[in-house]
């Protein structure tokens, strides 16, 4: 499903080699001032940095164009549609008929009957442009509540070999979130964050608070004790207990695998299963970081706004 | 939200200190033979093992009672409701007005205005009974497709101190899943698994395939190359690429924090924020393992059945 | 799907010849006082009236039993499960293998492969018990906002022949609804009401305001003009314009077909398609009215509460 | 909510005075040949006919432009986005600050805080362009199953006065639908149709089969008896029983109110509640018919495809 969220919802579309990517944001309250410069600045954070050796050499000038839902700078309450034109859509034809290892080629052949990579242009990191635009609008809502989201690259894999790519670990913090967000059972704030992160291309893990390390701890070490005035002494739980925010910073980490497209040759097969060799591409990033950071934040923002709206009903009595 | 799934859906209810817990399974095809012995055996796997020092001393004789949706042993296509009576509902009154550290007490006070722990009986591991019942029915569907799910405890925290509890790490494998399951973008098989796992009480991480370790690898190390006949040489991706299953075993790990209720005393505060001391309880488990294993498998089964049903539409043309 | 609503949601279950019917209400705010007497009084309105020649002679003593979600009389924020025991479950075995004309027999054979009527006990007016219970709780929320729902039988078909059944027309009014409820495009207040009504067994039409008669009117006759102070001069639109409430009473009508089970014999066929004769039953009502009135109101209440919750997000800026 | 459907889903956007309207179709199977000429021909049916006195004089050359989801003429399985440019977006500035009687002006002021009509351009019949495009693609799926949808204008109100507008009644038939479509309880085929129709601007009623007339009939008149070979003798139920299709033609009628924008003057008030006079507009249609016919059929097609996909799971055992 190409829709994320329950009340504040993003539905997006578009392929890496098509005309544009874009999306529709539904459920945004009316009267929100859309700071287009801010939205654009978030897109710029996602753009390749020519000075950064981790980034692609492709020139992408991503400019968001809003098609609906905004009147004189403010939201109308109707759906907010936007597109971002693709500037450099020329596909790499040589490899169009070869399965790209650890990419989407094979699974799309199996799921949809695809016969070439170009049919699967939907399954590209290009799609994350849409998340950044919607996330920026979510951040505008959160800013009015004084809620802030920040992320950092924690580590990048040490890769010696030339032409190779590198995995990376990202940490994200949501601060000033009110306590009480997140729904019971299957709608927990952490569960929604986990789904949000794993939906980002190349993401392979999600941890909140102590995360994986929690499995090595004792209860007396781990428990977040509160003292007079409800102050927490520690934040091992990463701001979420029983699926619900507790007012402390929400802290989570998410690991990304190395980008599967290498700058060096790879053994592979074609769509009929015959062995072949895939040439390297110089057009791809070496690592998802730092470009993935605004994507991680955007998904966190979508989760936070949705949880905020879902909690409103508990304030009416 | 107390509903999980999109087509094959579980809605559950019930509190640890109430009469019963139960659920409603919607979207189950008609004509499925319900092997009640199998369902019961899954519940038995979740029951405390008196010989296991990690388990609670509470006597729980969990027997599933089906209320609807089954006729002469087979599903009718209508909703399948079930309850499991609570046998030992006496709450621990001493601590009813004290916040339990790293438990749901504080967040429910903030979210729902709760004034005591008993109001939050919904947020207890008791609720996982419902997941096991629904997961068992999902497994019956998967068995007809030859799909199997197994899980193991990978590690339990070394805890020296008496009366303490321990975190644990669990691995789960889904085998014989067809390639092509999982929806684009936000409905990926891994994203749904991640949400499913993080929704289990005490779960703090989700990793698929190499998971966290993927962040330390290079692309040439990591990529899952295929050879003639579409055979994979490795399974670093854990059976899911671009959110879609590739026919290899789906392998994921999930970490659980130490159970927050200790057998020893803990510093805490009451619902008004005044410092107090929480007495230990001998009624709780020392570790979620091994009782959480059927819960992990059940959630994986719910994800797999839903993904299987959602893929059917791609077979009609 | 056996779930109704988006935020305030009812999932129900149970068959006419099973142990009980019941449901789970999700999304109810915490802290709502559940007036059990009121809920029971709504069930009593649905019960057969022995003095009413339109009603069944079956003795149904429907008592609601809450299983979860309520603590010391107030909602906890968790799912509210309830059951109502079936008192008189003995099926009419003679006709179990004969298709009941205009009933669910044939379509369930086609949809689910049913081989007898008893398998289809889900598809009975008995299921509406669950709607009345959930609707009563929705009414308790609406009462706090001073919103009231009333319905009446407008007409009952004149039926001369003995043993025959009669169609009926019902009108319902929701008063004191605030303006602004209902979502754009596909989530209109009238669209949700229409789906709610058509989901009631035997319902065959929905009209709002002038309804069908609107097709015979001119714009100058029809338009609801407002005067100084935003007062409406007329209510031809029935309180909903462009899918959104305008603060006037919401007025709609819904037609019910005659109950398909007759007290006289009917020609029919069996499940193999062989001609047969279906004996009459004295156990069924002659007309859905007046017992359907609390069902109509209940469904209207579910729609109103959901729309009320969905509108909350437009008040945060 | 601006999304319709559960598996086959349309999310649309755009305002009458904006750059374009458009939508995203999610859940379409891969490999479907998109006959663009057919889609365009459906849009042409919706276009104003210069020779038809019921139609607007505006020149609309609606051409659909697909942005994603199609590769070499066939669907990829990804979301299908499309836009239709607005040709004639000049708003009627004179009336921008006057409430249009029985239009969306007042309710949008109440719901979203709108201060002029232009903010509400989403709530215009222009939005139905998107339904027609999505409905055309749904029809392409249905054609492969030999399912056909046709509609007709049954009656148009007799209007004597010059400059006035007229209500109308439409009938629609879906033929060759397999028996067994429609979900239990709240997901009935008729309930989904009712919601679909009431979501069309100006629609005020929905009837299926005998519809309103069912309320005046006796059971012995009404019941659809079957004879040897499961043949139905009548179709009073309009092809849907207990919410599920029975294989007979699905026949429903839906009434439209007169278009609220008149060619003559109307009394009204401005956004502050002061009395004023709204001048007539020559740019609007006199009646929704015949232009609404492809919209009615499109919504019926969306319902049918969704029900068809939801039924697939009952065929796996």
Catalogue the unreliable spans of chain A: none
Gyration radius of chain A (Cα, Å) is 21 Å
Number of helices of chain A: 6
Percent range for β-strand residues of chain A: 15-25%
Shape of chain A: globular
Q: The biggest beta sheet of chain A, please?
A: 5 strands, antiparallel
Q: Assign the structural class of chain A, choosing from mainly alpha, mainly beta, alpha/beta, alpha+beta, or little secondary structure.
A: alpha+beta
| Oligomeric state of the chains in view | homotetramer
Task: Tell me the greatest interface.
Answer: A-B, 109 and 109 residues
Give the helix proportion of chain A (percent range). Answer: 10-25%
- How many β strands of chain A by DSSP? 17
What is the N-to-C succession of helices and strands of chain A?
EEEHEEEEHHEEHEHEEEEEEEH
What strand line-up does the widest sheet of chain A have? 1-2-3-7-4
- First-last Cα distance of chain A: 35 Å
Q: Return the average pLDDT of chain A rounded to an integer.
A: 94
Verbal overview:
- Four copies of one chain form a homotetramer.
- The first copy, chain A, has 317 residues and is of the alpha+beta class.
- Helix content of chain A is 22%, strand content 23%.
- In chain A, strand 11 and strand 12 (231-232) form a beta hairpin.
- Chain A is globular and about 65 Å long.
- The two termini of chain A are 35 Å apart.
- Chains in contact: A-B, A-C, A-D, B-C, B-D, C-D.
- At the A-B interface, strand 1, helix 2, helix 4, strand 10 and helix 5 of A face strand 1, helix 2, helix 4, strand 10 and helix 5 of B.
